From TrEMBL:
A Pfam match: GcvP2_C
Keyword Oxidoreductase carried by entry: yes
Organism field: Vagococcus humatus
Protein name in UniProt: Probable glycine dehydrogenase (decarboxylating) subunit 2
Required cofactor(s): pyridoxal 5'-phosphate
Catalytic activity reported: N(6)-[(R)-lipoyl]-L-lysyl-[glycine-cleavage complex H protein] + glycine + H(+) = N(6)-[(R)-S(8)-aminomethyldihydrolipoyl]-L-lysyl-[glycine-cleavage complex H protein] + CO2
Sorted UniProt keywords: Oxidoreductase, Pyridoxal phosphate
A biological-process GO annotation: glycine decarboxylation via glycine cleavage system
InterPro entries: GcvPB, GDC-P_C, GDC-P_N, GDC_P, PyrdxlP-dep_Trfase, PyrdxlP-dep_Trfase_major, PyrdxlP-dep_Trfase_small
Length: 477
């Protein structure tokens, strides 16, 4: 398709922008551009058709199956958007007097109560912008906690080798040293290896359970006890909360802080980069280290307070409020019975797909999985030359989004499949059929799989070249 600049014709314009309704102010000479501003000149039909065509190039949850592993990316019920669009929510200003936004502030206190019940946490902040930002905030609290105890020797964060890549990155940003712990033959934390690296310099552990290969670690309470006995803290990466919400709680497993991907686990997919919401919950003994603007219900109404040993603000104002409105709507709609039912269905769907594929694709860690499972294409690649990337590209031919590839890195030629609870049996059966067809093509027509996709708006691209030599601006002649 043409770029908007390629559609441009001199002299064309449209009246989509309203007339100026504020006093016009001249720009001081010092701030004026020294070169002409290049903007496309297009008519209203042209611009409308351009963005419609652009939208058709993308594949989202509303288009078809979207099993993007590790992200819990699922359908967003439309009632969520209706609630977020209510004028009392959508038209708020962050500097309004608190007595004019009491209803909105109750969204914070009610969400804290319900999410605290789900996670086993006592307090929660909604400032962090998304999951990794929540990790960063939690680790700042880890650091502040140890410093408050004059325990300056604790500078190491333990991270399993199957962890999400943001875990070591977040810990490094806070200034911690990363200690990697290997997985055992079952894909879980190697207890003996963990014990060997824990000591007086341990600040904490970062872990998700179920883990990245979709297995619930049976030793989880022993793992967190090892860290606590050494004087460290336990952080729960909430990316994989989807299959256990309403069933078991991170707080009961021994975790002290948990971050949540509100924008995914609680149904507001943020594919494309935003908006997200990554609140963190903590046990009572860590409350005073929370960020500023902690909402508390008083006799006068809900007010913002500043915890006594706060780490400060981690984002402007109070976080992405409307994403939280969507999540609260989802929780209230499902209720006490619906939340665990969603978790059970996520597990059921993943195991259904795994059962119908593991006769062809190798599943390194067998048995019952949770919300996701990881397949390896290593043998197929050795036999046919067809890689995990080739399989993923072939899936695009069938109007489905491919799963996460090459992650976790402990599985060679990995494909991580996470169907989520919102997909029907018919959708899963169609996906299974596609995977089985690609397997057959790999052995009978490998050149076809290597060349895929052949019928998508954009064919196979040079991803390495695109990453190393990106073209991100239009070159005017």
């Amino acid at each position: 398709m043409e770029l908007i600049f390629e559609r441009s014709k001199p002299g064309r314009y449209n009246q989509m922008i309203p007339d100026l309704d504020v006093p016009e102010v001249a720009i001081p000479e010092a701030f004026k551009r020294e070169s002409e501003l290049h903007l496309p000149e297009v008519s209203q039909p042209d611009i409308s058709r351009h963005y419609t065509e652009l939208a058709k190039q993308a594949h989202g949850v509303n288009d078809g199956f979207y099993p993007l592993g590790s992200c819990t990316m699922k359908y967003n019920p439309k009632i969520n958007d209706e609630m977020a669009a209510l004028p009392g929510f959508a038209n708020l200003h962050p500097l309004q007097p608190l007595d004019t936004i009491q209803g909105a502030l109750e969204v914070f206190t009610e969400s804290e109560k319900l999410l605290g019940e789900i996670t086993g946490m006592d307090h929660m902040t909604f400032q962090p912008a998304a999951g990794a930002h929540g990790e960063f905030t939690a680790l700042l609290m880890f650091k502040a906690y140890h410093e408050s105890r004059k325990d300056s020797k604790r500078h190491k964060i333990i991270v399993p080798d199957s962890a999400h890549g943001t875990n070591p990155a977040s810990a490094s940003m806070v200034g911690f040293e990363i200690v990697n712990v290997p997985s055992d033959e079952a894909g879980c934390v190697d207890l003996e290896a963990l014990k060997a690296v824990v000591g007086e310099d341990t600040a904490g552990l970062m872990l998700t359970n179920p883990n990245t290969v979709g297995i619930f670690d049976k030793n989880i309470t022993e793992i967190t006890k090892i860290i606590h006995d050494a004087g460290g803290l336990n952080y729960y990466d909430g990316a994989n909360l989807n299959p256990i919400m309403g069933v078991v709680r991170p707080g009961d497993m021994g975790f002290d802080i948990v971050h949540l991907n509100i924008h995914k686990t609680f149904s507001t997919p943020h594919g494309g980069g935003g908006p997200g919401c990554g609140p963190i919950g903590c046990k009572a003994f860590l409350k005073e280290f929370l960020p500023k603007f902690y909402p508390v219900a008083t006799e006068k109404g809900v007010e913002f307070t500043t915890p006594s040993q706060t780490i400060g603000s981690v984002k402007g104002f109070y976080g992405h409020f409307l994403v939280l409105v969507r999540a609260l709507t989802y929780i209230l709609y499902l209720g006490k019975e619906g939340i665990p039912e969603a978790a059970h269905n996520a597990v059921l769907n993943a195991n259904y797909m795994k059962h119908h594929l593991e006769d062809l694709y190798e599943v390194p860690y067998g048995g019952i999985c949770m919300h996701e499972f990881v397949m390896s294409v290593e043998k197929i690649k050795k036999d046919t030359g067809v890689s995990a990337l080739d399989v993923a590209k072939s899936i695009l031919e069938h109007e489905m989004h491919p799963p996460t590839m090459y992650f976790p890195m402990i599985v060679p030629e990995a494909l991580m499949v996470e169907p989520t609870e919102t997909e029907s049996k018919e959708t899963l059966d169609e996906a299974i059929k596609v995977y089985r067809q690609i397997y057959e093509d790999a052995y009978k027509q490998p050149e076809k799989v290597h060349a895929a996709p052949a019928n998508t708006p954009i064919r196979r691209v040079d991803e390495v070249g695109a990453a190393r030599n990106p073209k991100i601006r239009y070159e005017f002649s």
